[in-house]
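Design a sequence for this backbone.
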């Protein structure tokens, strides 16, 4: 008996070689089970999709030869609330496909491959809508192997065609602002102005990529031309164009001369109007005085002609007066004038 053998001291391992061998077998068994089913998709963990476009969410898997159970594939929409269950969307089991959940969410949803059992369990969405936003989980199970893969889907709206306009009178030497605005689109929206004719935009002009403004502090003829504004976000871009003009200021001497001539012409027109009014007033006054004079010089209105009986009576009276005059002649001291008959008025005058 070897007296050099010693009893293990406190803290020394009591593992024997058979125990270590058993532990290694268990470890290899667990390791092989973990690596049995693997989802090998290497795409982005977050997809930014445009509203209305067709989308594909990858889920490529590789089973292990030891995975002999029935294939089971599930796509679920992970609930942001951990206290609630995930919403199952589509599944594949027993060589059949099944849709689950809200029809508004499952509309247009299908497996991208005609046979998901061939290693491609990717999800296809024919027309992405705001309801499709969220975190998707692909779970592939084939006993004893199982693996999962998650992808976040962000649904964005493309920017609408922007409107371009100019603020300012486009006069040379004055500040002018080029504006660009898109009414629709998911933020953040980025604006960028480019010059399509006449060279690049000068460094003195300042751009605001958030508000879509290009400010030119001192406009000149060299800066006139075609400008384009592009608005973009993560899923699309649109643009608009405008023609910036350079209007030269008018000649000051010409402006002054024109102003003076205009004032003189206005004064002449006013004087002409005053003369016409005075002439018209004098004419009316003369016509009124002339009318009054004509009324004063007009003869008296004719009397009404006497009737036939009155005429005969006057004639008889005249005859009697003549006879009386003959029989009774006047004395020497008194003279009489014979009365005359006026046939126009019908009586003796």
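Sequence:
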């Amino acid at each position: 008996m070897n007296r050099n053998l010693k009893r293990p001291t406190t803290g020394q391992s009591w593992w024997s070689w058979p125990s270590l061998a058993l532990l290694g077998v268990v470890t290899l068994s667990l390791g092989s089970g973990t690596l049995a089913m693997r989802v090998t998709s290497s795409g982005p963990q977050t997809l930014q999709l445009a509203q209305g476009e067709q989308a594909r969410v990858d889920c490529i898997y590789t089973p292990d030869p030891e995975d002999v159970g029935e294939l089971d594939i599930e796509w679920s929409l992970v609930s942001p609330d951990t206290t609630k269950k995930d919403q199952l969307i589509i599944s594949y089991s027993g060589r059949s496909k099944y849709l689950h959940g809200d029809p508004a969410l499952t509309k247009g949803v299908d497996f991208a491959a005609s046979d998901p059992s061939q290693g491609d369990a990717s999800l296809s969405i024919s027309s992405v809508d705001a309801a499709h936003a969220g975190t998707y989980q692909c779970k592939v199970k084939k006993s004893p192997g199982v693996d999962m893969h998650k992808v976040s889907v962000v649904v964005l709206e493309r920017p609408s065609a922007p409107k371009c306009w100019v603020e300012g009178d486009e006069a040379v030497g004055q500040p002018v602002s080029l504006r660009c605005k898109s009414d629709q689109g998911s933020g953040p929206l980025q604006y960028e102005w480019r010059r399509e004719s006449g060279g690049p935009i000068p460094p003195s002009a300042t751009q605001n990529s958030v508000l879509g403004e290009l400010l030119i502090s001192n406009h000149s003829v060299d800066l006139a031309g075609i400008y384009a504004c592009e608005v973009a976000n993560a899923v699309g871009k649109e643009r608009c164009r405008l023609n910036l003009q350079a209007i030269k200021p008018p000649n000051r001497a010409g402006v002054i001369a024109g102003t003076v001539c205009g004032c003189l012409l206005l004064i002449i027109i006013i004087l002409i109007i005053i003369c016409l009014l005075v002439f018209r007033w004098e004419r009316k006054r003369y016509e009124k005085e002339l009318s009054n004079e004509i009324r004063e010089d007009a003869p008296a209105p004719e009397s009404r002609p006497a009737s036939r009986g009155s005429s005969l009576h006057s004639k008889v009276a005249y005859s009697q007066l003549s006879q009386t005059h003959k029989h009774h002649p006047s004395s020497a001291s008194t003279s009489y004038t014979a009365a005359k008959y006026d046939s126009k008025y019908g009586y003796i005058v």
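Residues 74 and 295 are 121 Å apart (CA to CA).
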